[in-house]
Every structure is written in C-alpha cells, then in structure tokens.
Hints:
- This protein is mainly α.
- It has a domain at 6-133: Serine Threonine Protein Phosphatase 5, Tetratricopeptide repeat.
- It is 32% helix and 7% strand.
- It has helices at 14-39, 62-79, 103-118, 120-127, 134-152, 224-227, 256-261, 331-346, 360-371, 384-398, 405-411, 418-421, 468-471; strands at 171-172, 185-187, 262-263, 300-301, 323-324, 329-330, 422-431, 443-454.
- The strands form 4 sheets. The protein has a two-stranded antiparallel ribbon. The chain has a two-stranded antiparallel sheet with strand order 2-6.
- The longest helix has 26 residues, at 14-39.
- The chain starts with 13 loop residues before the first helix and ends in a 12-residue tail after the last helix.
- Residues 197-201 and 207-215 have low confidence and may be disordered.
Amino acid sequence: MGLENLELLTDATLEQKKAIEGQLLFFRGWYHFMLMQYFGGLPYIDEVMNASGQLTRPRLSYHECADKAAADFRRAADLLPIDWDKTSISVITNGNNQRRINKVMALAYLGKNYLWAASPLMNYESTGSREYNREYAQKAADTFGELLDLVERGATQYELVSYDKIGEVFYSYGQNGRMPGLTEVIFRGPEWDPWQNTRYGLALQYVPTPYHPDGGGNNLSPCANYVNNYGMANGLPLDDPQSGWDKTHPWKDRDPRFYNDIVFDGCLITDNYQNPLPNIELFTSGASRDINTASRTGYALKKFLHPTCNRYDDGWGYSPQFTIGLSYLRLADVYLMYAEAVAQATGTPSGKVSACQLSALDAVNKIRERAGVEGVNAKFTGNLDSFMSELRRERAVELSYEGHRFNDLRRWMLIDKPEYADKTSVEFTRSGDFDPAHPENNAVSGYHEEVIVTRSYTEKHYWMPLKKSDCNMSAEFKQNPGW
C-alpha cells in the first residue's frame, strides 16, 4: 500500500521519498524470504489485493519467488544510505539509527536470498537437481563480494569485533540497558523487555543449569554430538587422527570458542564462593546431571551470558541491567555465506569474485583467526567436498545457538540424516586429581556418548506444512509434499 501510494506523499524531499521506498521494498522482500525459507515458493504479493476478489494466485517455484525478492532487495540497496547518521534526513535520530534499514542490510539479504536459492533443497524444489545451482551461487557471491568490499575498505560502520569483546555482540551488562551488537550486528532481532529480567525473557533460557533463580524453568543443554563440532585449537576436527584429541582429556586444547560458549565438567560457574558447588559437576550422575532440573547431555551453554548470571551472583536483575539480544544477521555470518557462495560458484576454495579480494578460504580463516583458531588445514582445501565439510562445521561453531542450524541443515538436505537426527549425551567419570582452577586439563575415564533422543525427520520435513485453511482457499495454492 505504501509503495502504490508513495507518489501521493508531497510533503517530503526526493531523498526522503527514496529512503521510504527503499525501506518498504526491503521489508517486502524480507517478509517473503523469511516465509519462503520454511515453506518454499509462495505467491509474491507485489500489489494491493482486492479484499472482495478471489484469492487464486498460484504458488511460484522457489526460484521464481527468490527472483522477485531479489529485485526488491536490489532496488532497496540502490536507494538506501549506508549510514543514516551521515544523511541530511535523520538529524533528530543521529546516534540511534542502528535498527534503520540501510544499504548494507539490503545487500546482505540479497546475497542470502541468492545463496538460499542456490542451495540443494531450494534448487531441488525448482529444478529437480539436488546439487547447488551455480548460477544463483554466483549471484550470491557477487552480492556478498560487493558488500564485503565496502566493509574491507572501511566504507561502512560495520566490522568484526575483537574476540575479547564477543560477548557484547550478544549482551550488555551494567551499561544502562545498552543494545548489544557493537559493530558486528547488521540486522537486530526483537527485544522483549529492556532488561530481559522475567523468567519468560530470552536471558534466563541460557542460564547454565541448574543455577536458575528458582531452581526450575528453561534449561538448555547442548547435545554432545553438536558440541563435537568444536574442534581443536589447531583447527582440526576432533575425529581427525592428527588433531591431538583423546578421550582421557576431552576438554584439553580445544577451539577457544568451546571455552567461551560451553559449560563442561568442572567449570567455575559462580564468583560467589559461599555457593556449595562453584565448580559444576557434569560427569555421569554428577550433581548437575539431573534429567529434570539440570543437564541431560553433560553440557550447558554460556555463550549469551555474563559470567555473573547465576542464582548466587544474581547478575541478571534490574540493577546490573543485563540485556540480551540475538540478531537475525551479523557480519561473521556474511563472511561464511560469502565463502560458501564463492566456493560453490567457482568450484574451488581458492575462488574469488572480482569485487572482493578474499577467497572462500580467506573468508573462513578470517573468522577463525579472530577467534584464535588455526585456519582450515591444507588436507581440506584440495577439493570442494572436503572444504564444504569444514565450512559446515565452521557455521555450526561460529553461529551456534543463534537460530541458523535448522535452516542450514534443511537447505543442505541433511536434516533427516542419522548423524543429525540423533541427539547424544556424553558419559564419563572423573579420573585422577581434580584441578578446579584449570578444568580443561582434568582427566576422565569411560568417556563415551549415548543416544538420548532421535528426531524422526523424513524428506517431508524439508518443508514446513501450510495451514489447511490456506490450501483450501483455491486449487492453485498447493500443500507441501507429504503433508
């Protein structure tokens, strides 16, 4: 409605009208994209519908729908400023424009839209091929290359934060409720309340169990086979014979992101030494392994928490103003999507696009270097399949628990495979002397994994079901396969 009536707006400058048009186009593309990635191709609503008319629009293929979204994202990117603070139309809101749609956001979602269209699931829906679509991968690579060229040249307000500040990408603490994200977050998600201090807010869902303030509530226990994605500091996956990982010291010399994100046995989880259990017990039958109130898997998550956010230090209340916020899209994700798009478009990890000097391998290693992890080992760079296995693992680690995994596994057509459908716990006992100051060095015995649940996914779960009432509106609006 806004786009169809934009010319009726007369009390505005040309710059203001372009900015309004760009934002409207972005959101038209974005809302369609967000639905498409779960349901597949849909009717693309690009005109005002007649409320009394028949709703007989057929579903488009994924590629047809993605092309229309791409046109909206591209036009939005061409109309919008990089930084609203540097325009003449946002003087009143200078310094508070982080959530305004801008050119960088539009380019990022244009690239993501193309990469999703290139992915095996979306390509299969549109063409019948279960491989990547190179044409769309090239479009994604070119778009991300255009964006990263701006970033690498310092022409935007975005850059990767240093890893010692990575927590502030997800939360702020004692900063008057400041919105998290720093320079890395591109598109922020919703915020439920300023301090996230109710048990229904995001914050308490990520409290390391069992230190919820009332001993119950939402407990999040990462699955052991997911945590296995966190490889070694030398950059190798755990199962590589040269990685140096062994089952008697499973927490030693791991990827630094493992220590930042994951609570493992023996971790100090409170600064309050009057707490009866400052070092968490996650061994089999340990005090924090109660299946109903604590960890079911032998791990807990701390990625989105300030260290004092536990029931003994009380670091999440109104006074410290702990504010958590998970973004829809941050810059690290863009680098990894660029790597995937370039590798698939060129067929090699060393591939580049003309707009950006980074190769696919360079982009992945940039994220690893930031975290203090060695780059992708040469044994994984000789062919595309080997490189993709490391790229998929890198996305699992860098973007863990940020809401990307389900769609990644679906678009790669992997969600129904046993290694992803099975969810495991880690079982072990402590062995030898226990070092409470350096739990990563502690020895264990009997280390093994057990399957605790299996998700019964099949190919029909590649797409979500549509509401029956929607499918019954007209013969042209088809249900998804298998539902």
